[in-house]
User: What shape does this take?
Amino acid sequence: MWPLRIENPIFLQNIYGNYPDLSSVEVTSADMNRNGPCMRLSFISTVLPYRPPAKWREFNAVSFTLEYMAVETISLRKFRSHGSSAIRMWDEDGKILLTCEGAVRLSLTCRWMRIIGITGILQSGSL
Assistant: This one.
């Protein structure tokens, strides 16, 4: 599930037709910044879009970078360098809640989010 409070979901919706499932992703980074404060979360998914851009050519995975702004609470309890995680995001009481469970255990609440990047990649091996 994705929250409704996404600042710029149009590209994501155009290539996927909806919002992709994030129940098995590989988190590659979680970066905090005091300005905002905000957090950028990057991950790789093997859920492929049905209408990818032609410039992606050969790809078997998609790299996402999301930014969560006006972060109010955050908890990072585990961060393994490899392995899959399940990300859930939803709206509640005017905020976005995120949980990530698996190789990375993370939770946060924030005011809004935006998509920084979505890119097709050619990945060797599996998640």
Q: What stands out?
A: Residues 8 and 122 are 25 Å apart (CA to CA). The mean pLDDT is 94. The first strand starts at residue 25 and ends at 33.
